Amino acid sequence: MNVAPLAATATARSSSLRWEGSAISWSAVFAGAFAALGLSIVLVVLGSAFGFGAMSPFAGDGLSAATIGTVTIIWLILTQNFASVAGGYIAGRMRVHWSIHTDEVYFRDTVHGFLAWAVATAATFAIAGLVAASSAAAATAVTTAAINSEESAPSTLITDRLYRSPGANPDLLASARLEADRLVVRALADEKSITPADRNWLEADVAEWTGVNAEAAETRVDAAFAEIDVAREEAREAVDTARAASVTLAIATALAMMIGAFVAAAAAVYGGRERNGLEDSLF
């Protein structure tokens, strides 16, 4: 029995199946990443257009905040899936042909899809960071103007009602209410920061500058602190709602990204099989 020729043939066959080049085709990875990034931008802009169309500046009109939040999360997941499918498929389909073991081909296709998703995700966050940085100055200016504006200060209306006095000199009242305005702002932040002495002073000051009697001044101060309590509770509810929405959005974003990574890897395997003429084996 002649064993030597058979061994030589097996050695030659194994050497012909050995891949000597790079295990990663970066051109295919970047092609898939750019495709995923471009599709993500288009879908995000489209979703933003739908969102602005559904919102309304008037109370009671348009979709509620909860509905808009739910739709946003669903659209985020769909955007991640669509972009990942496109990027992963292109990365797997455009890679170089490998004459190696089939299992190794499937693994490398999976890696190509995952890398395309990772590059696209990193680019997306980099672009988002640049946009946030460029708009930080404008947002700071708007916020500062809103804080410094008397019309937008939360304590302004309450102090106006305390010192409302028809026919009084507005300049004198403006200078007199400065300390009271600071007291109201402090009360909005912390109800325990206001002592009984502060309330007594405020009642006397309101009575002095507005000309009302002590009983009317006390009524005004009681009403003002009742409004302060309501405003404080509304602010706390708004903060809690915003915090819960931020947590939900962060979890949904992480979940969408994990799904996107899996979808991109699967799409790359499908694209690689199609390139090798093995699409029928999927079924």
Number of helical regions: 9
State Rg: 33 Å
What is the N-to-C succession of helices and strands?
Answer: HHHHHHHHH
Flag low-confidence runs: 1-17, 136-152
- How many β-strands, per DSSP? 0
* Average pLDDT metric: 74
**Cα shape:** rod-shaped
Q: Describe the largest sheet.
A: none
Distance between the termini: 43 Å
**Number of structural domains:** 2
As a percent range, the share of strand residues is under 5%
Overall structural class, as computed from helix and strand content, comes to mainly alpha
Q: Helix share of residues?
A: over 70%
In short:
The protein is an all-alpha fold and 283 residues long. 78% of the residues lie in helices and 0% in strands.
Walk me through this protein's architecture.
This protein is mostly helical. The chain folds into 2 domains: 25-141 and 245-275, no CATH class; 156-234, no CATH class. The protein is 78% helix and 0% strand. The chain has 9 helices and no strands. The chain has helices at residues 4-16, 26-54, 65-93, 102-148, 156-162, 170-176, 178-189, 196-210, 214-275. α2 runs parallel beside α4, α3 packs antiparallel against α4 (102-148) and α8 packs across α9. The longest helix has 62 residues, at 214-275. It is rod-shaped and about 95 Å long. The two termini are 43 Å apart. The relative contact order is 0.13. Residues 1-17 and 136-152 have low confidence and may be disordered.
